[in-house]
Structures are given as C-alpha cells and as structure tokens.
Structure to design on (123 residues):
C-alpha cells in the first residue's frame, strides 16, 4: 500500500513540474498610435530557465488604414499586411532558444487598432 501511495505521489509531483515547464509565456499589446515607418519591437523571454524546445507564435487582430509589415527573429523576409488584419504565424519548433522577437513596422499606416498576442511556449 505504501509503495502504491509513494508511486502516486511521485507521478502527481512529476505532472505538476511538467505542467509548470509547459506553461506558455504571453504578452498582449494594443497598438493604437501609428506613425509612418515607426517600429514596434517586442522580445519575449523563456523564464523557466531550461532550454527545452520552444514554440514561438504571434497573433495579430485589428485594422489599419494602409500597409504594415512584420517579421520574426532571424527571418529576413518582410511580410506585408493591409486593412483588416486577422493572422496567426509562427516560427515553429526551436531548441535551445531563450527568447522570441517580433518586429512590426507601421510602414505607411497612420491610423488603426491592432491587438497583438506574443507567445513563447516551452514543451
């Protein structure tokens, strides 16, 4: 009986630690002031202290009156968005990464309202 109880406690403790390590780290930002060619750069850090695999993604929802562009860390290609924006994009899985970077340039936009959810999830 004691071995069964000890096994259950060990499994429960292991699941609690695993759940803590897999908890995503999120940052929500609302951008309402736009100035042409102004940049918003956001860096989100893995605070768990372990270099496991990370899944880095960004969700942008809202509208702008003209063109904006974005890119993620290490990506040299600019991706352009215009008017109604509702997009989720990611870098996919990466190992031994401590942070994720989003670069958003207002490019030609002067008005708008964007809700940005920036997430790095450890697994």
């Amino acid at each position: 009986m004691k071995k069964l109880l000890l096994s259950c406690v060990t499994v429960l403790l292991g699941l609690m630690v695993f759940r803590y390590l897999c908890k995503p780290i999120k940052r929500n930002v609302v951008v309402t002031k736009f100035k042409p060619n102004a940049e918003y750069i956001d860096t989100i850090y893995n605070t768990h202290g372990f270099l496991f695999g990370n899944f880095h993604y960004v969700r942008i929802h809202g509208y702008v009156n003209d063109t904006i562009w974005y890119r993620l860390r290490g990506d040299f290609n600019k991706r352009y968005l215009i008017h109604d924006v509702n997009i989720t994009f990611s870098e996919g899985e990466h190992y031994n990464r401590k942070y994720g970077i989003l670069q958003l340039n207002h490019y030609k936009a002067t008005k708008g309202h964007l809700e940005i959810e920036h997430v790095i999830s450890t697994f």
In short: The CA atoms of residues 42 and 77 lie 17 Å apart. The chain has a mean pLDDT of 80. Helices lie at 2-21.
